[in-house]
Amino acid sequence: MKLLTGNDLKSGAVTWWTGSDWSIHVEHAADVGEHGESILQAEEGARRVNAPYIIDAVDTAEGPRPAHIKERVRALGPTVRPDLTLKPADPDAGDWVI
Amino acid sequence: MYSYDKYDQSIVDGRVAEFRDQVKRRLAGEITEDQFKPLRLMNGLYLQLHAYMLRVAIPYGTLDSRQMHKLADIARKYDRGYGHFTTRQNIQYNWIKLEDCPDLLDDLASVEMHAIQTSGNCIRNISSDQYAGAAADEVTDPRPWAELLRQWSSFHPEFSFLPRKFKIAVIASKEDRAAMRLHDIGIELTQKNGEIGARVFVGGGMGRTPMIAPEIGPFVKAEDLLSYIEACMRVYNRFGRRDNMYKARIKILVHEIGADEYRRQVEEEFAHVKKLGIDPPLAELERITEFFAPPEFAADADIKVDRSDPDFALWLDQNVKDHKQPGYAIVNISLKPIGGIPGDASADQMDVMAEIAKQYSFDELRVTHAQNIVLPHVAKKDLHTVWRALREAKLADANLDLISDIISCPGLDYCSLANARSIPVAQKIATRFADMDRQRDLGELKLKISGCINACGHHHAGHIGILGVDRKGVENYQLTFGGSGAEDVAIGKIIGPGFDEDGIVDAVEKATDVYRELREEGERFLDTYRRVGVTPFKEAIYG
Amino acid sequence: MAELRYRDDEPHEQPAVTLDAFLDQSNAAAVRLEPDDDARALIPYLDRISLIEVGFPAFRDGRGYSAARILREAGYTGELRAQGDILVDQIAFMRRCGFDSFAPEGSLDPAAVERALGQFPYAYQTAADDADPIWKLRHE
């Protein structure tokens, strides 16, 4: 599957395209299929996202899992600061990245 | 310490106002990201993996308690309560919001700080010796020269769109604590017939093509310094490669045309530039030098230190260095706790360091290129008090220059350029060698980790260097031996195939075992490696 | 044609010729320099040139800044025009290097240019403009 991701223009936070909006949770990301490029252009023009791009991901039971480790680090947060990730209560959250 | 006058302040204030306007235009959609990117980069604002990252300049690594307190305030107010001190003696904040950035820059300007030229293809923050003004072996304090260069390079109209970024370091001792010859321009102040002048090295650097800078100007007089550096820069700006960003640093130009030809061109340009009157009178260097006058040391300061507390004695032996003034010492604060993140400090720790500096170090702190902090002027009678206060804040690790004093770039945990994570490797190695007796037995061992070929973690200059690479989407780590950023400068060599994260920790341990077996009296790891060569190490690691 | 011009004399209207063409016949009074042309090749002819146009194919290519200063240092007083990919935030640097007219590919907002030129009342360095550097102001 293909996901569309970028950073929020104002805050810089990592965001994922859900099909109608942006979410900081990769679990909410939608498969953009072949439409990534057109959504990307419209959304960048609307200034809701900065530097968006399309990535490969795998659909899993827990939701989309980006194919590359860099995108998984983006989706979670720094593995060396679990307290600053999106899953601070889950001590094993970092395992998902590797 | 240098203090701004109305001119310096007008430059910094002008930049804040300019950036406020640029951010407003970007948020209003008047300019695109393509147009905004070079503008924010010139203000040190990057878009990293998780957020915007702001790099704040700490000129030649020197700051006072007021400034350190402000860095702590900024960490709390605009970030997540911490900052990362870098190999360029700067500080980076990892979670900055674009809309907050102008206010943040205003806060910085209120304590004479800024983020000017901390990114972009321009002359970056000038770095220097963290022991400047305190080291017994310096011929003069290098910081007035660095400040002169800082001012000259700030908003230089001709050199703001160079082929590539440009880094300058200034030192004034034979012992090189600033990796001087691994800079685009490295300056070593030296004395000849009673006069101080600059030995100018050009074309060093790390990155994907590491080079040691050759000497270009053997002795440049103070009154010629800016003309000479301007000539060096102009030759680079005109003839440095622009067809390939990986070949655009000045080291490639100097390497391709040769040091002799580069020197010839610089001398020709200098003969021309010198006539233009761009050098300030010596009175300007004297004006700046007055700001760096030595503090009022007590002439009769006690030189004895009570070493009866063994933990304190350990810290004294490892982290405290001789000062040029009897009765005083240089204190190194390690930002490398075992299992911690190299170079990170919490806002509370910054406040503690600021407070200690104010009370016990004539209000001065330094940031080192090894990502530690220095209190340059501590009276020996206060050392025990300082140590206890540091220990309270978990800042008294006695591991300076030992294997756990690791330089590490942020790596793939933060950086959008990285191919592999660096910090977890640093943490695992430090934890493996946590035992202090074991570390001290291994002695000085500079281990440096970069998460990609750009070498921000100085792996080329590590006695042991580790380079993270991406091997088909999996993190892989290459090992280099024999590098040094000191006066025995050398580029490390890759010893063989790479390892996974656990494998690299084992390989480092095996290398230290070989060293212990083969070392001769007084030899550091680096010395033994240089004497015996790579073979016994390779056999132990790959055999 | 320059969109912004900071000179009072009549603009030179004939097209600029390439450096090679100029050096071949050299009766033209307007020359265009590309980034890899050597500005010093023009030094013997400066007194009969009234327009030198310096091309900036990409705003990141800063060679034209050195070309401008070299020409001004050699005593050139004619029009010095920057043409190409020019950002509003570069105009102040270009003015300091000696450019006195601008022909940007995109259009520039004159108000934004005015703002940019007035942002910094002082400068640290000696350059091709007549502003006194800060060190001089300090020691007067």
Question: How would you describe what is shown here?
Answer:
The complex is a heterotrimer of chains A (98), B (543) and C (140). By secondary structure, chain A is of the alpha+beta class. The relative contact order of chain A is 0.19. Chain A contains two helices and five strands; from the N terminus they run E-E-E-H-E-E-H. In chain A, 18% of the residues lie in helices and 28% in strands. Chain A has one domain. Chain B has a five-stranded antiparallel β-sheet. Chain B folds into four domains: 6-109, Sulfite Reductase Hemoprotein, domain 2, CATH 3.90.480.20; 134-289, Sulfite Reductase Hemoprotein, domain 1; 310-392, Alpha-Beta Plaits, CATH 3.30.70; 408-542, Sulfite Reductase Hemoprotein, domain 1, CATH 3.30.413. Chain B is of the alpha+beta class. The longest helix of chain B has 22 residues, at 6-27. The mean pLDDT of chain B is 97. Helices cover 36% and strands 18% of the residues of chain B. Chain C has 140 residues and is an alpha/beta fold. Chain C has one domain: Rossmann fold, CATH 3.40.50. In chain C, 28% of the residues lie in helices and 17% in strands. Chain C is built from five helices and six strands. Chain C has a six-stranded mixed β-sheet. The longest helix of chain C is centred in the middle third of the chain and has 11 residues, at 63-73. Chains in contact: A-B, B-C. The B-C interface holds B 5, 7-8, 10-11, 14, 17-18, 21-22, 35, 38-39, 121, 151-152, 154-163, 234, 237-238, 242, 272, 276-278, 280-281, 283-284, 287 and C 35, 59-63, 65-67, 69, 73, 87, 89-90, 92-94, 96-97, 115-116, 119-127, 133-139.
Topology:
The complex is a heterotrimer of chains A (98), B (543) and C (140).
Chain A lengths: L1 E6 L6 E4 L4 E2 L12 H10 L4 E11 L2 E4 L2 H8 L22
Chain B lengths: L5 H22 L5 H9 L3 E3 L4 E5 L5 E3 H14 L3 E4 L5 E6 L4 H9 L17 E2 L14 H11 L14 E4 L13 E8 L2 E8 L12 E7 L3 H15 L10 H8 L1 H15 L8 H10 L18 H10 E3 L5 E6 L10 E3 H14 L3 E4 L5 E7 L3 H10 L14 E2 L14 H10 L3 H7 L4 E4 L13 E8 L2 E8 L11 E2 L6 H18 L6 H8 L2 H8 L1
Parallel strand pairs in B: 6-7, 7-8, 16-17, 17-18
Antiparallel strand pairs in B: 1-2, 2-5, 3-14, 4-5, 4-13, 8-9, 9-10, 11-12, 12-15, 14-15, 18-19, 19-20
Chain C lengths: L3 E2 L11 E2 H7 L4 E4 L17 E6 L6 H11 L5 E6 L6 H7 L3 E4 L5 H9 L15 H5 L2
